[in-house]
Amino acid sequence: MFEKLIQDSMTALPMLHWPILACLVLVVNLFGRGGPQFYLGFVALGLIASLSWDIAIFNNELRETVFSGGVVWDSYAQVFTIIAKAMVLVVTLTVFPVAGLQTKFFKSAFDQTAEFLVCLLLSGMGVSILASAADLTSLFLGLEIMSIGLYCLCGFYRADVRSTESGFKYLMIGAFSTAIFLYGVAFIYGATGETSYALIAQKMTTLAGDPLVKLGVLFTLAGLAFKLAFVPFHLNTADVYEGAPTPVTGYLATIVKVGVLAASLRLLWGVLESVSGMWISSWIALCALSIVIGNVVALQQRTMKKLLAFSSISHAGFMGLGLLVSNPQSGDVFPLMSYIIVYSAMSLGLFALLTYLENGEKPLLIEDLRGLVRKKVWVSLALGIFIFGLAGIPPFAGFMIKFWIFQALIEQGYWTAAWIGVLGSLLGAAYYLKVLMTIFISEEEGSLISYAPPRDPILSLRLVVIAATLLTLLGGVRPQLYAHWIFSTLALK
Amino acid sequence: MLNSNYLLVLFAFPFLATLIVSMVRGRGQAVTWVSIALALGYFIVVLLGLTVTELRYEATWFLPLGLKYGLYLDSYAYYLILLSSFLTLLALFYSRGVVEKKITAYHALFHALQATVVACLLCDDLVFFYVFWEAMLIPMYFIIGVWGGQRRLYATMKFFLYTFAGSLFMLLGLIAVYIYYYKATGVWTASFQTLMEYFQTNPMPVTVQSWIFLTFVLSFAIKVPLFPFHTWLPDAHVEAPTAGSVILAGILLKMGTYGLMRFAVPLFPEAAQAFAGPLCFLSVVGIILGALVAWQQTDIKKLIAYSSVSHLGFVTLGIFMMTETGWNGAYLQMINHGISTGALFLLVGFLYDQRHTRDISAYGGLAKILPMFTLILVVMTLSSVALPGTNGFVGEFLILLGSFQSNTASWIWVVLASVGVILGVIYMLHMIQKLCYGKPSKPEVETMTDLTWKEWVLYSPLVALVFFMGIYPIWFLGPIQEKTAGIFATIAPFLAK
């Protein structure tokens, strides 16, 4: 019994790095009296070690079902775990500059750096579970583990009422969406009598018209859509993003979506493929609505974080379309994977810069960036590259990832989705350009001067931003940089 | 002889120039001189290729989907590259001492613009072409937005979004061609030459062609701009700095007509033939309407902007009448318009720098005060209104001749277009009369100074070209005719008899 457990744990060890590291932080916190920088450095080093380990033992032939069939440890699970760890590492590095600030606001918050990191790591573990779930119960477990950490992270600035609001609202949406999701899972279980993906998939082939399955699929889809913040399930997303600490907002906009997409990829194409008639059109509608409404609402935002919240909704729509054209069985997931990687790099880079620019006490308005280029040339250039990238304008990587998606959509005959994607890109360009205009073109002195960080970005932030910039620049000119990796790990096995 | 490495130099030089210019440190005019020297160097590099008829270069870009860094140079691309390097050199030279703000960024952006334009002209791979087609917007967006006039924010936004909208539709069309070819042959490639050869023997069904053709035409028509997609142009021109207007009118608009001649018509000849009638109609409306609106303008820059709409209408008319003569004329007219309109914008800049107004009624009597300026202005105006002996005449004459020969659309349209020529004379001479004759409207006009050595350096090559191309057009037309004949040989079976 224990032997099997230990053997399974060794197989899925990369996933267990998360709780191990989290426990180490807790133990150190019990005895140590290090400052925030100490814990951040500790976790960053731990994640780097863990990442190197994962990459070293990466094996795309591996495919083992472990933990009594709850988890399947295959190339997808490994790749998504690596991606999640890299992103959590980026978030950790992004926290450095604010954690070191001596203002009252940040100082009081970062007395609890260790707790912050534990929540972050455990939430990352949720992502790994989501990506490797082979059973409806472990899928549910993954969603919950990821979310519970996030509720705490969103409300981390306890002195700030907006942060508390963010945490509370996220908790409410989370509770609601979990209930809906579980309801759907219950229906599927009711119809098939199974929770394991493989067994459900077998039984599904004969249950195409079953009303129970229909309800089940519908509610499960709604639950996932809530987590991805798809329109019309995007209630309060903007408030959650706005109030959460900025690095956490970056986490919400990228890793959460990546985790849920990984789970959806397995669930939709692995389990529900035989009843794809039930969900494909709803899925396209959800993506299309997210792309269009996300972009339209973003046009009217005044604060940077809300703008990025709605922009992330529209990008989630694009990633959803990427999922639609994927085929994990044949390993053909290139458009989705490249979108995930490049979008996350651009977003996290952008959020890192916002973390650097804001002072935490009031939301950063787009207006605050007025004339930034005259004060911080390099910061502005990096911002410009990320924003052009997010807008999908060549020669930046943001264009290539949209190109792959459009190409796959048209190849598979989803013309309507492609047209809507084009419309969305156009709307998106309008507000991204508005931000660029404020940074580069507007002349008048802005309010930024009143609280612009007087210091230069610290090393950890520079690393993050430079890495993200390089990926955004080179990924557009030489897509092989990441494409070969995707092709050789996933498709060409 | 030059080999395919020349293509690499041609392609990479402006990118390196952008890098070098943006790294120059130092006070004063150091950047300007480095930048002008680089622009001159590039112009010379381009001139070296004058004897080239056809060159290819190929390297893998993205193997899994068959995308390539394919470069291809022929005379269609070559003369536009020549024009681009020439006008960029003049525009940068003009900016010396005129632009005070953020000089490094200004020069770097012009080189970046040149880089994307040249890359766009050289690309053989459609996807690669598209990348630069859109990248072209970024430098222009900043040039108008940072160094522009009062309403620059509005103008640059409108410019960007209009052109971006068109491009995105083309992206879908382009992907559709690419996938069509894959499904038909099982090979991924977006290489234009390969696609052309394939479609020549295996044409697409006409309905498919038509849809894709329309997405391409929409994108190119916005760039040209063809009526009714022209509304961004006057705003962009009026707000752009002088050098920006020169490049915008001289080169960027030509990218649209170039796209039509290079991609839209040769790839989809049957669809082009099917839609040629309506497109000719739009061209004629553009010619007449542009001319009438130009007549009413009080702002000189706006007047020239609308005259561009009218002149580019001739070019698209020449293209969509689908005759060889018309195409030769259209190509020549693209170059002509670059020279004459580029020069006119420089001349307006000369006035504006002294008086800071572009209102026609703020001048008057310039013939006495600025005789040399008036001389150049009149020469350029005559070129613009196509007086025999100047370059404009050859282009317009060939276009009208080709249009009369054509079976595509009724000769009545051609007659109407000819009326546009007359309207052109009216509004341009109207402008000359108000600017240069009569009495000065304000005392400040009296204190204006005439051309200095700097202006002479700027205008003399332009004036020389106006007459050279007017009197000895075959020097340009020869290579162009050959290329056009080649294209028509492949598309002729699909055209109306």
Could you outline the blueprint of secondary structure elements for this entry?
The complex is a heterodimer of chains A (493) and B (497).
Chain A: H1 2-11, H2 13-31, H3 36-56, E1 63-66, E2 71-74, H4 75-99, H5 104-109, H6 113-132, H7 136-154, H8 161-192, H9 197-204, H10 211-228, H11 237-243, H12 246-271, H13 276-298, H14 304-324, H15 334-357, H16 372-375, H17 377-391, H18 397-411, H19 415-441, H20 448-451, H21 459-477, H22 480-491
Antiparallel strand pairs in A: 1-2
Helix pairs in contact in A: 2-3, 2-6, 3-4, 4-6, 4-12, 4-15, 4-21, 6-7, 6-12, 7-8, 7-12, 8-10, 8-11, 10-13, 11-12, 11-14, 12-14, 12-15, 13-14, 13-19, 14-15, 14-18, 14-19, 15-17, 15-18, 15-21, 15-22, 17-19, 17-21, 18-19, 18-21
Chain B: H1 4-23, H2 30-48, E1 54-57, E2 60-62, E3 67-68, E4 71-74, H3 75-95, H4 103-122, H5 126-135, H6 137-147, H7 152-185, H8 192-201, H9 206-223, H10 232-239, H11 242-267, H12 269-296, H13 300-320, H14 324-355, H15 366-369, H16 371-384, H17 391-405, H18 411-436, H19 443-446, H20 453-471, H21 474-491
Antiparallel strand pairs in B: 1-4, 2-3
Helix pairs in contact in B: 1-2, 1-4, 2-3, 2-4, 3-4, 3-11, 3-14, 4-5, 4-6, 4-11, 5-7, 6-7, 7-9, 7-10, 9-11, 9-12, 10-13, 11-12, 11-13, 11-14, 12-13, 12-18, 13-14, 13-17, 13-18, 14-16, 14-17, 14-20, 14-21, 16-18, 17-20
